[in-house]
Amino acid sequence: MKNFWINFWKETEGQDLVEYALITAAVALGMIAAVRGVVTALNSLYESITAGLALTP
Asked: Which residues does 11 contact at the CB level (< 8 Å), separation at least 6?
């Protein structure tokens, strides 16, 4: 792993660095979208449960 980082920083071609940055950005955006979807689903589930409990005597 150490050799990877040494070679990564010694790399002189900027194209590879740009590609890594774009891939990282795409993965980050995908993760943000997935987390937002999960949060929305959990919020809906929580609201359904609390509404059901409020109706129970």
From this structure: 17
Give dist(CA 31, CA 22) in Å, integer.
14
Alpha-carbon distance 20 to 9, whole Å? Answer: 13
Cβ-Cβ contacts under 8 Å for 17 (sequence gap 6 or more): 11
- Position 3 scores a pLDDT of 86
- Element (DSSP H or E) covering residue 23: helix 14-55
Q: pLDDT: is 27 or 1 the higher one?
A: 27
CB 32 within 8 A of CB 25: no
Phi and psi torsions of 13, nearest 5°: -90, 125
Q: Whole-angstrom Cα distance, residue 51 to residue 1?
A: 52
